[in-house]
Amino acid sequence: MYERLETAENPEGLRRVVVDPISRVEGHGKITLLMDANHEVRQARLHIVEFRGFERFIEGRPYWELPVLVQRLCGICPVSHHLAAAKAIDQIVGVDQLTPSAEKIRRLMHYAQVLQSHALHFFHLASPDLLFGYDSELGRRNIFGVLAQFPDIALQGIELRKFGQEVIRCLTGKRIHGTSAIPGGVNKHLSRSDRDHLIAWVPSIVVAAKKAEELSKRLFLSDPRHQSFATIQSNYLSLNREDGAMDLYHGGLWLKDQSGKLLLRNIDYRSYADLLREEVKSWTYMKFPFVESMGSSEGWYRVGPLARLNNAAEIDTPMAEAARRDFISLAGGRPLSATLGYHWARMIELLHCAETVQLLLDDEDVLCGSLTTVGEPRPEGIGVIEAPRGTLFHHYQVDDQGLVTRANLIVSTTNNNQAMNESVRQVASCYLDGHEPDEGLLNHLEVAIRAYDPCLSCATHALGKMPLELEILNPNGERNFHISRNVSDASSSI
Amino acid sequence: MRPPRFERRREILVFAVGNESRGDDGLGPLIKRHLEKSLVDIPSIDFLEDFQFQVEHVYDLMDRVIVLLIDAHLQLSKSCRLEQVMPIRDPSLTTHALNPAGLLWLYETVVGKMPPPTFLLAVQGQEFGLGSGLSATGLQNFSEAASWGGRLLREPDLSFWIREAGRGEGGA
Q1: Which of A160, A276, A448, A485 could pair covalently with A119 via S-S, beta carbons 3.0-4.6 A apart?
Q2: Rounded distance, CA B143 to CA B30, Å?
Q3: What is the ipTM of this complex?
Q4: Angle at A190 (CA atoms; ends A189, A195), nearest 5 degrees
């Protein structure tokens, strides 16, 4: 739809506008625009500037290290990588079905992590734009503004995150980078005392999650602009159960197009390599996955909460299911394509996670029962899971010694790469065309990116030292305009 | 009635931050574990460790009488320093490495009341490289800081801690 803005014809002579870094996202990225003399946008790109290299440096490592190693990909969603790798390793050790206890413990860990990740994103990263408006005063449109005006909302977010982290700590030993999943199972049960502590706490978490869902719905519906802002038409990919119900831990691949037509139904994700291709472009380190049979122009898709809500036939917890029906009723039977709908979808998932954690804590299988299964070794394993940000693929091949010979990871945010670029181009077309870009307008671009809750990883920035600087250079490379933004004084200077 | 999430909570919190994979940055967690073993006869202490201060640690501070934070430091002139931490609005809140004063400010802002009296035991480190162990300096300072921490926790009286903090750097 906006592919014409990927590469400008005759970029010489165009003015370059850069947003670097993108603020209030996890990790580092930048947006560049090329604009002509009439302030028309001729090119808009989202660049991911980080290179992690995990797929190369885990080659040669023994497979049993992988669930621990790959957690270091991220400090926000390490459990997702831990479990995706564990699911792949299960296959390598010949296990296709875990014991009930092992699967429920993994599910408990996973749903707690999605809960805390979603809470962090909504309350601390996205909420300033939604509560105050995309182009509201810069001095207020940040977490300090939320704390000043809505401290109760901030505290709610903190408690939700705390609870999720506490569940993870009880299961893995640490809030971040703990261990639980092992080949063919898990290494311990939840202790009865920890379970009793958490199960007494969880009812208030479900209440808080419901309030968060209601808030996000109210904010989404409060402004008609939200329905069209950054909105693009796309396919939607997710895991679902065989009956089409949402399942964040395991399922088959489902793909719907923008009209809601089912293109793929419950495909075994171990055949993902026959289905998907990844395109590389020179101007970003992040690849562009697409469905090969549809081609790169038509075969890209969105993943994550919006895709999962659009694809799910049902959510198997009652309050979240009621919210899902509300959500899908908006689009009259078609998938909801509004990009800002991600925020509401994310909170519906948060509610689902809270309800699911409550059910699992009440299940004796997490306290006792066999934890591991064995099988015949295999040379390859593929693990796919619905991480907070979308479908996550881990694929490993090993030699006779169990050492990794090849690894391929398609990280959730990578799946959304083309979609994020399209959303940036939509916003650039609708809001920036014909206007001199100021901070408020440029924040519109960031709002589009934030909706996807991208995890761009956070390996390289200097802690606490992240000024935002905007320079406009003329075709001769001379600076025409300069504006900087520092969070500590929350003001801009020219 | 205490809310369910605080049912197991004790009056004193010892909270250490640091990354053991980074040399002397692991001093905080190591001291915390030493204190946990050596003070097993004191039932009123909760021990906590994490890589960094995060927003959810607001909850860990609730319902406490006194808090001791332990963290490695780059630029002390002596082995360790005890200081009382006061809430200060700080941009570190917007990063994934909140500092103690910012954490207390966040507590005050969202909870609506002053945080419990909180003290930071900062321990001088020398080597912070990835994969390195404790340096000789770190090992020496570990002993002094652990000793000081033990004395504080055996007398968890606010006026005593304030006097100790007034001694500045040192600890012996």
Answers
A1: A160
A2: 10
A3: 0.89
A4: 155
